[in-house]
Amino acid sequence: MLDAKTAVVTGSTSGIGLAVARALAKAGANVVINGFGDKVEIEATRAGIEADHGKPVIYDAADMLKPREIARMIQDAEERFGAVDILVNNAGIQHVSPVDEFPDDKWDQIIAINLSAAFHATKAALPGMKRKGWGRIVNTASAHALVASPFKSAYVAAKHGIAGFTKSAALEVAQQKITVNAICPGYVWTPLVEKQIPDTMKARGMTEDEVKRDVLLAAQPTKEFVTPDQVAALAVFLCSDAAAQITGALLTMDGGWTAA
């Protein structure tokens, strides 16, 4: 379905991003993965995707805190493959704390990685998409792009920002066969979610099981975590010709969380 297309997926060495990278490669795309982690493990992941699907997969270590590195990553992908047809802005971090105790540096990092990085990558990728007359931008948002939770002010602010950015960018390129959409999952069982459990336990005075049951899944009527593969399948669909008229959309995948 995506033969001869090239996709850049930020934050794709684990979790949702890795599932999306694998799914795009399976659909036929060349893939650039990005993110932090152990070099040996990243190389094993890269080589594994390439071997499984027979498509070139390269790794780029661009730091999402650094706009110049983000732009360089897009430029390198264009030089390597001829174009960046698909951009998945997925990189994200989390920190849980009351507003009046929220560390300044954590606020700045979350806004930079979860919101500003999507802007910088999109800015770098759009000229090539416009020249080619085709493009797909998929932003990983969250149910927190639509509703709020306590103790996550920076994350909620960034994801609300992604929602607005998605809509605005979509309108700008609506007549150029470029779509811009955001997927808004509920709680997906990923390392990002797992790592926030201790902070939530501390902030709320709860056990791990109580956090999972009464905090993480409290708002999801299905009482089940979303899986990375489910998010990846939606991302691949948004890159297909069948989704050509879906743009500026905030697509929920939250077990009914935002239906109430």
UniProtKB/TrEMBL annotation:
<dbReference type="InterPro" id="IPR011294">
    <property type="entry name" value="3-OHbutyrate_DH"/>
</dbReference>
<dbReference type="InterPro" id="IPR002347">
    <property type="entry name" value="SDR_fam"/>
</dbReference>
<dbReference type="InterPro" id="IPR050259">
    <property type="entry name" value="SDR"/>
</dbReference>
<dbReference type="GO" id="GO:0032787">
    <property type="term" value="P:monocarboxylic acid metabolic process"/>
</dbReference>
<dbReference type="Pfam" id="PF00106">
    <property type="entry name" value="adh_short"/>
</dbReference>
<dbReference type="InterPro" id="IPR036291">
    <property type="entry name" value="NAD(P)-bd_dom_sf"/>
</dbReference>
<comment type="similarity">
    <text>Belongs to the short-chain dehydrogenases/reductases (SDR) family.</text>
</comment>
<dbReference type="GO" id="GO:0003858">
    <property type="term" value="F:3-hydroxybutyrate dehydrogenase activity"/>
</dbReference>
<protein>
    <submittedName>
        <fullName>3-hydroxybutyrate dehydrogenase</fullName>
    </submittedName>
</protein>
<dbReference type="InterPro" id="IPR020904">
    <property type="entry name" value="Sc_DH/Rdtase_CS"/>
</dbReference>
